[in-house]
Amino acid sequence: MKIDLTGKVALVTGSTRGIGRAIAQGLHDAGARVAVCGRDLSRAQAVAAELGDGARGFAADVADVASVQALVADVEKAFGQLDILVNNAGLTRDNLMMRIKDEDWDMVIDANLRGAFVAMRAATRGMMKRRWGRVINIASIVGITGNKGQANYAASKAGLIGLTKSVAKELASRNILANVVAPGFIDTDMTAAMTPEARAAMAGVIPLERLGTPADVAGAVVFLASDAASYITGQVLVVDGGMVM
Ligand code: NAI
Q1: 144 close to 236: Cβ distance less than 8 angstroms
Q2: pLDDT tens for residues 28-58?
Q3: Catalytic residue among 58, 79, 153, 223
């Protein structure tokens, strides 16, 4: 089956770099028109220009409810519809649980979890009317396994899984599918901060013996957005080279 998203409009949050950028590229390559979104408008517009025809740049802070609502409204206005929502924007504020400050808890939950909820609530309204929609939320394997030093981040990613499954049940009758992609250890700015030793230790426990690439994650997202996945909803697709089985 050839993946063809011609005629669809996708919004990918946090898509000016890393995994989000690769997802935007993958959806655009498959024929979708794509809303590239970052915190900085000029950067988002530059990435949209790199993608080419049918891509446009938008700015939003996903930790801000009004900003997310305005983003969805702006995308629907600019493209006339929104069919595929990918909640990819995310951040870490790592520390041991005892040392996590309230503001670092709130920041991670507000951006990673509430931002996705607000975007879903806003974007699925139009999807319900058109009786077609795809929501793909980017979680993490640590939302399944937990991780020392990432209680806030792991809670936000586990929350995304429960959120997605609930919405999948609520909206299946409207032909809106909601799934999670849970990446493992992917080579991006987020993981570049680790020491070479820590990276080597992580790579050592990956059965495929390499870090993932943003394109590895994008492939799973494009699949879930496509008609090839039209009987799949409420699932967590782990993309981790076999780390978690
Ligand atoms: P990254 O740090 O390179 O990119 C994250 C993007 O989200 C950036 O463009 C950033 O500007 C944006 N962002 C962060 N906070 C935002 C906010 N408040 N408003 C708007 N945009 C915001 O990270 P990467 O690695 O590309 O991560 C993408 C997603 O994949 C994240 O949700 C992350 O949690 C998830 N993930 C990454 C893994 C990895 O190994 N790199 C593993 C598992 C999950």
Answers
A1: yes
A2: 999 999 999 999 999 999 999 999 999 999 9
A3: 153
